[in-house]
Amino acid sequence: MSTSSFARLWLKGRADSVAALRAAYPHIAAPCCTSIAAALFIVAAPTIGLAATATTTFNVQITITNACTIVSATNLNFGSIGVIGAAGVGSTSTITVLCTTSAPYTVGVSAGTGSGATVANRLMTSAASNTVGYSLYQDAGHSVLWGTTIGTDTVAGTGSGASQALTVYGQVPSQVTPAAGVYNDTVTVTVTY
Hints:
The chain is an alpha+beta fold.
């Protein structure tokens, strides 16, 4: 028997049931019996055309390579002073790097742009071409210079996948105090990985 023939016979059976209910209980309104028949249809209706499924899979992939970026490098300001005393003047800067987890890296700091400057004696220069000498160190004790030669005076580290802050310790040593003015230098930070 086809699905459509079965459905017609089933519906005829439901109609016969409604007629029997109305004959047995003539005092009940017709909409009641109609509702009961509808409920019977919903509950007892056979499931026709069950859905079929099919599945597949796909690959998800990402390739991580070693990389580093310099997130920021704060300015190093020695402030304002009248005379450079015997103790000199100290200040700090922070270099923040971001490297892939487990990636080895080194951070170098240039000698700056002062004419004749070296890693051991960087120079801030005024508009009148006067200079103030200073140095940058890896440690608070000012014993290890920070330069650009890998394996000698750069700072080495291993990436953590998160930002890592490195402190630069600056020191203006005792020296003859030059003429009043604003003295500046520009230092380049390089991360090698």
